[in-house]
Automatic annotation (TrEMBL):
Domain of life: Bacteria
Domain Beta-lactamase-related: 97-370
Name listed for the protein in its UniProt record: Serine hydrolase
Biased composition (Low complexity): 8-21
Keyword Signal: no
Protease as UniProt keyword: no
GO molecular function, one term: hydrolase activity
Keywords for this protein: Hydrolase
Region Disordered, annotated ranges: 1-45, 282-305
InterPro entries in alphabetical order: AmpC-like, Beta-lactam-related, Beta-lactam/transpept-like
Length: 433
């Protein structure tokens, strides 16, 4: 089957957790399918965040050459704050429970429903030592959710005929991938998109210079960190392992094809057309745009403030800064069909190339009522974000937590179950204890 064929979206596998920024699981192709669970394991990171869905086909720019014509989404409808439905022990109580049980400084969630209905809630503190709670308009780093934006740009370029997902990396970046069993002639763009290329996750290394977030690192530096390790796969496509290194290479491909930085392409194709006014690439800026709270990492000595850092080590797939509203707006437009043509959106939701673990920049997410949901989550640099959206539906939630430690499992599941299934998690109490 060619990359241009419309491929039906695969049924969501028994998969519970969208991979987080430090998730470095290696899964062989012949491994059994992921086991269904109504709980996350205690070691699996990932906050509860939902993202909205709904809308129409992408438009294309007029008045420019075909080779330079990006697929441009139409602006998402505005979302206005209005009361959500009445809940029995609702999401605000669950947020309070999440903060108290997880012992994190603060958390916030935004629910968006079709028709402009929305609900925002917050608990705890935006910054330690301050009484201010997290706010709906606060900016924060979204880490791995950036991958969805880059994946969309790659799929738009494919729809425009400027690349094929079956292209080897060598065709676009000669000589970049080699040594330690890596071969850019065999690794394709699709392998990179679904994390089956076998590149080592540079974020895993405890002595990696990226971890200090105190120096500038070029994309080529990050790729070299990954190539310093033997390949994680007997051949490209044979096993799954999430690695930011894959999307660093994709960012370089975007720059080579378009003559513009990956940040500029995401801005002109997605951020500007969708009016994501709170979303930006930081460039060399260490600070967050105002307003913002703080971000905290757990260390043996307690919580360490990670709000300001050099973002270059996060790579092309991890640098974006955004807001709750913008994430709901983006994922709503994407899953609603206003960002990609139908064949490319179907390819994005298809998990077969990702060996049942993820599609292209999105991961199936399971709840008890079997609603078709797709997600992206991240734990990075003192911040946790998860976005989960109903396929084509217009129902979304984004949950943000301002610390990167383990979260209490029950409240996370409760928010998703309540919003998508209308009840708390099976086996959980329906009233506060």
């Amino acid at each position: 089957m060619t990359d241009d064929d419309a491929r039906p979206a695969a049924a969501a596998p028994d998969l519970r957790t969208a991979p987080a920024a430090f998730d470095v699981r290696t899964v062989p192709a012949d491994a059994p399918p992921p086991r269904t669970s109504t709980r996350r394991t205690a070691t699996t990171p990932g906050p509860a965040v939902f993202v909205a869905v709904g809308a129409l086909l992408a438009a294309t720019l007029t008045g420019c050459d075909a080779a330079d014509r990006p697929t441009v989404p139409s602006p998402a409808p505005s979302v206005t704050a209005s009361p959500g439905p009445a809940y029995d022990f609702g999401p605000q109580s669950i947020l309070v429970e999440l903060v108290e049980l997880s012992r994190v400084p603060g958390a916030a969630a935004l629910v968006t429903r079709e028709g402009g209905m929305s609900w925002f809630g917050a608990a705890g503190r935006a910054t330690l030592g301050s009484a201010r709670p997290p706010r709906r308009e606060d900016h924060f780093r979204i880490g791995e959710l950036t991958e969805t934006f880059l994946a969309v740009v790659i799929l738009q370029l494919a729809a425009e005929g400027r690349l094929r997902l079956s292209d080897p990396v060598e065709a676009h970046l000669p000589g970049l991938l080699g040594g330690n069993g890596h071969d850019g002639r065999r690794i394709t763009l699709l392998h990179l998109l679904v994390h089956t290329a076998g590149l080592h996750p540079y974020m895993e290394d405890p002595d990696s210079p990226y971890r200090a977030f105190d120096r500038r690192l070029a994309p080529a530096d990050l790729v070299r960190l990954g190539l310093a390790h033997p390949t994680d796969s007997i051949r490209p496509g044979a096993s799954y392992r999430h690695a930011h290194t894959h999307y660093v290479v994709l960012g370089m491909v975007i720059e080579k094809l378009t003559g513009r930085s990956y940040a500029a392409e995401v801005e002109r194709r997605l951020i500007d057309p969708l009016k994501l006014t709170g979303t930006s690439f930081p460039g060399a800026r260490r600070t967050l745009p105002a307003p913002h709270g703080s971000a905290y990492s757990g260390t043996p000595g307690g919580l360490t403030d990670r709000t300001e850092l050099d973002p270059s080590g996060l790579g092309a797939g991890g640098q974006l800064i955004s807001t709750l509203d913008d994430l709901n707006r983006f994922y709503s437009a994407l899953l609603g069909g206003r960002v990609l043509p139908k064949p490319q959106l179907a390819r994005m939701l298809d998990t077969s190339d990702g060996l049942g673990h993820e599609g292209v920049g999105l991961t199936p997410w399971e709840v008890s009522c079997k609603a078709p949901l797709y997600a992206r989550s991240s734990i990075i640099a003192g911040t946790q974000v998860l976005t989960v959206a109903a396929e084509g539906g217009g129902h979304a939630v984004t949950l943000f937590v301002n610390a990167d430690g383990d979260l209490a499992l029950g409240p996370q599941d409760d928010i998703l179950e309540l919003e998508f299934c209308g009840r708390r998690s099976p086996g959980r109490p329906t009233e506060p204890s």
